[in-house]
Amino acid sequence: GDSVTQMEGPVTLSEEAFLTINCTYTATGYPSLFWYVQYPGEGLQLLLKATKADDKGSNKGFEATYRKETTSFHLEKGSVQVSDSAVYFCALSGGATNKLIFGTGTLLAVQP
Amino acid sequence: NAGVTQTPKFRVLKTGQSMTLLCAQDMNHEYMYWYRQDPGMGLRLIHYSVGEGTTAKGEVPDGYNVSRLKKQNFLLGLESAAPSQTSVYFCASSYSTEKSPLHFGNGTRLTVT
User: Fold this and answer.
1) How far is it, in rounded angstroms, from Cα A37 to Cα A45?
2) What is the pLDDT of residues A32-80, one digit of tens each?
3) How many beta-carbon contacts under 8 Å exist across A and B?
4) Distance of residue B14 Cα from the nearest chain A Cα, in angstroms
5) B85 — phi, psi (to 5°)?
6) Is A24 exposed, middle or buried (0-12, 13-18, 19+ CB in 10 A)?
7) CA A34/CA A51 separation, integer angstroms
8) From A8, A30, A56, B24, which residue has the greatest number of CB atoms within 10 Å?
């Protein structure tokens, strides 16, 4: 069945460091891919999305490119801030089922 | 501009008690969902609804029931709570599925003792 695998956390970085959170997926058909972010005490919010191969989603300095050849959707940011500290979830939809399937989440902690 | 509102925010139940979690959305979305979030397991879909009067089972439906009598509301019921249902519960809604983003509430933290 469809699944999403993302890197284990926590990821601890200093402010202004480069961020990569890896995400790979298994799915039939042509799924859409998403990154959601969850700040402490809140629900998830959509960060960015890509709906077809080679699309790049971007928002708030974060980017991710839909790579069909490597079945990946890695999240990157060139210079993280303390305010980026949160849990990041990779997700897909539109594969074998029409429901959104989440990875287990990666906690990012950015230190000043 | 409320979005998705969940009540209550926190609840403690004893084993065997029942309760209902309420989710309300003001975006006229057709689709609504209930997820539970547990450490190391991400979000797992409990039940969902594709429109008023419809419900369907998700990945982990056992021990829960739902109702969607009005388009804007989606209720999650626990008839006989168990400690395994201790979790954070999130409601979400979307205009449609697949490419539409989900809008989440802020969650309900439930503890069953």
Assistant:
1) 5
2) 999 999 998 889 999 999 999 999 999 999 999 999 999 999 999 999 9
3) 50
4) 24
5) -95, 5
6) middle
7) 9
8) B24
